[in-house]
Amino acid sequence: MNKFCHTGFSQIQELYNQHVEQIDSALQHCKETPCTNGMAGEPIPYQLRNDFAVTGIVFLCFFLAVYALKNGKKYLYQHIKSFFRHKERAGLFDDTSNFNIRYTLSLGSISCISAGLFVYDFFSKTDPFLFQIVSHYAILFIYIFCVLLTVTGKALLYQFINWIFFDKEKNKAWISAYFDLLSGISLVLFPLSLLVVYFNLDFHFSKTFVLTAVISFKILLFYKCIRNFFNHFHGILHLILYFCTLEIIPLLFLWKGLIYINNIFILKF
């Protein structure tokens, strides 16, 4: 009886060991063989509102706007009201003759940062491969830096050209008008940037709106340039040369420069 029981338990143990080996072999085969069942998941598309750098820049613009609008309401109102006025010389007690660098820099920085955000959004839609291989933070800050550099370079070029051809009063009036417009357009671009970032505004609509804002900005500069420098008919040729050289060509250089930077990023990374 003991002999037969011992034989039966040996067979059971042998069958159990074979079963364990089969299970281990099946598990090992599953690990080595990739699973081809099911559908591949789609990656989540990039969204501006999920980017911490974009959110931080939006908050910075918001605080700058609050500071300028809270403390500089009178300054901004006087300059907006006097934009369409034309005086040969500023009065001694004229409030608009005072150029407050704090509010101008605050609102001008908002315009440049918003423009950089729009460029960032444009290339994220039209050139997604660039955003897959290059850090988003680097691209965003380089775009904003390029816009700031263009605005600063234009201001210095204005000072140099106007110092050669025009008197001090006209030069001062033009610089003030240019930065007044740059400050004013921030009140349009910043709300639009909020719609683009947080409400996923339609790409074609936002592109058209930004283009309209830029064209309106140039038209107002054209008007101010006529009133300030070339208020006679015989100066129309000089006006076209002046405006194209200092307004149109810098924009073309900026656009070509951004495309060149994108190509460098793609080739390098």
Could you characterize what this model shows?
This protein is mainly α and 269 residues long. The protein has a domain at 107-268. Helices cover 79% and strands 0% of the residues. The longest helix has 33 residues, at 236-268. It comes from Phocaeicola plebeius. Keywords: Membrane, Transmembrane, Transmembrane helix.
Ordered list of secondary-structure elements with their pairings:
Layout: H1 2-32, H2 52-71, H3 73-81, H4 101-126, H5 128-133, H6 136-165, H7 168-198, H8 203-228, H9 236-268
Helix pairs in contact: 2-4, 2-7, 4-6, 4-7, 6-7, 6-9, 7-8, 8-9
User: What proportion strand?
Assistant: under 5%
**CA distance, first residue to last residue:** 79 Å
Beta-strand segment tally: 0
Secondary structural class = mainly alpha
Specify the overall morphology.
elongated
Q: Count the helices. How many?
A: 9
